[in-house]
Amino acid sequence: MSSESLTLISATPSPFARMNRIALRLKDIPFELQNEIPWESQTQTPKYNPLEKLPILIFPKNDPRPPVYESAHIQTYIVEKYADRGPRLIPADLDGSLLAKQIVVLGVGCMDAMVLMRWEARRDQAQQSPKWVERQSRKVDGALRAFSEYAEAAEKEGRGFVVGSELSVADIAVICAIGFIDFGDVRPGWREKYAVLARYFDRLDAREEFEETRPVMFNLTEKVV
What we know:
Helices cover 52% and strands 7% of the residues. The chain is of the alpha+beta class and 225 residues long. A four-stranded mixed beta sheet has the order 2-1-3-4, with helices on one face. Helix 4 (94-122) packs antiparallel against helix 5 (130-156) and helix 4 runs parallel beside helix 6. The longest helix has 29 residues, at 94-122.
């Protein structure tokens, strides 16, 4: 594999790319962050991902590997392709590994629901679907309940992490999803409702790799919906 830096194409507020940025930093894998707005006409996203979505992990010109896309798959790629570098970020046992990946799916699904709610709110009022928003909102509430159950089980068992005894992609996904909830003020009062989850979130989100990757809003210059 090339020793040159990788490139992660992202959007500044993206909780999806934040997961990958944290994993790359924890494993001390050199990479450059290239920010884009994938919905605007000048985007280069379709060049690397036929689904026209971010994030995308790309390799140096002399590296024959094709681009890797979809945040959950990028996480799997990072932990498996760079297993010998830095912390594992995935439990060594099969059941733990599968559970961690399931929690990543849960985190990504929660993020997706929030993004869909945001886009619906950008439509003209007459075109918005309250039932659609309600459906996405239920996904966020369901994810929060599940995150809380994982955090409570970990605390009860004396563990600092939701799967196993070490930080994993599962923790990264949970923190990034909840961080996006906070970023958009999607669920005011969630801390009071889920006190154990709040303690877990604050402890991990204070780590350097998490603090340095918190989302930053961008300005859309073209109408998308």
